[in-house]
Amino acid sequence: MGLPTWAARLKAARHGECWTQKEVARRLTEAAHEHAGICLPGRESLTRMLRDWETGRARPRSPYPQLLALVYDLDEAVLFDDDAPDVPDSSTLGDMSVLNLFALNQPADAEYVATLRRNSQALVTLDSAHGGNEVFPLSLRIFRTVSAKLAVGSLAAGIERDLEAAAGESGEVAAWQAHDADQQETSRQIVHEALMLSRLAGDRDMELFELAHLSMLSLCQDRPREALRLADDVLTSGDLPPRVAAIFDVRRGRALAVMGDKARGFDALQRARSALAESISARDPHWTWWMDEAELSWHEGMAYAELGEWGKAAAPLMDASVRRSTRGRSRYHYAAQLLNALVHAQAWREAESVIVDVMGQANEIGSARTANLLLRVTDRIERAGTGPTSTLADSAQDLRCMLASS
């Protein structure tokens, strides 16, 4: 038996908003409080219920149909009536949504390509300053549109390769922001398509960026052997620009650390540091700008963390946080990882000032991967019982409330 129509519509509505089930659970809770004055079960219970609804194992009962309609800004009948038209599923990158059908009537030309590249850079700037949560849906919409133009040939003569290259870059931007929004499988899906486009365009520089992204995702998803193979394949592929080699040595070092090979892992990180000491050369792609001393210190701290050496992790993570003096997504994430290391090391006093720094940024940056890390950190502080100082314990409770309301 296939998926019930209403279940498919619920799933499509969520994908259309680029929300996780946890995000829908949060919005359901808010809608119930604001519009119905009722309390719902906890977020974890709601997330399980959403999973059951979207797989057709259970059908929502009152008041959930009304609340779901509010959350998705749809009529209840659109979601649940058998004869209602289907909700377009925007999770499929090449779908023919209304947006894409409209875009196909406007063939891409050279100005479109130039605008696409400018928009990609603007989205990178916004993400760096404010995080990926809010920027990602726009990046994904842009990538879907240009992908649809390429798929059906809605473009002026002579620009196909330029458009493929610009589309590959647009896909990498969307994939990164999906990662920061903690939508890792979506990020993997997007970057695979972006990689295909960059290869079709013959854009080796962007292809290397996308391979570095895939290696990073493999680490995030507990697939270190895959991350190592990706890094090694690039490192042995031929003469690489120094900073590109440094990035893949970082991926190699992190993967080896996860696998418990400390000596070879830190050898790779040291090679990366040596390469980074060189000035940026004309051969280095423009996208290597983000690999700097702060980023490398952060990766060294993370390698110690992956080896379980939390006390040693704190110093390079602190160095990374200090070097990244400009407020923004990177500094927020560095500070969160530093706090995580200090809490693991039970360095409670040192953690007090760091958690204050984190709280000062929590309302400014929309980064679900960082917020989810911080929720795990506050749980660890709470479970530590009488160990943390009263100041740290109180701050952890305040931080949890801030994250829940953001």
Summarize the structure in short:
This protein is mainly alpha-helical.
Report the major sheet.
none
Rough shape? globular
Instruction: Tally the structural domains.
Output: 2
SS elements, strand count: 0
Summarize the helix and strand pattern as letters. Answer: HHHHHHHHHHHHHHHHHHHH
Gap between N and C termini = 40 Å
Approximately how much beta-strand content do the residues carry? Answer: under 5%
What Rg, in angstroms, do the CA atoms define? 23 Å
What is the average of the pLDDT values?
88
Percent helix range: over 70%
Q: Provide the low-confidence segments as ranges.
A: 87-103
Helix-strand makeup class: mainly alpha
**Annotation field: number of helices:** 20
What does this structure look like?
With 406 residues, the chain is an all-alpha fold. The chain has two domains: 5-80, 434 Repressor (Amino-terminal Domain) (Orthogonal Bundle), CATH 1.10.260; 98-230 and 314-405, no CATH class. The protein is built from 20 helices and no strands. Helix 19 packs antiparallel against helix 20. The longest helix is centred in the first third of the chain and has 21 residues, at 110-130. The protein starts with a helix and ends with a helix.
How would the blueprint of this fold be written?
Elements (H helix, E strand, L loop, with lengths): L4 H13 L3 H16 L6 H12 L9 H9 L3 H5 L17 H7 L5 H21 L4 H18 L7 H21 L3 H18 L2 H17 L3 H12 L6 H17 L3 H15 L16 H14 L3 H14 L5 H16 L3 H15 L5 H16 L6 H16 L1
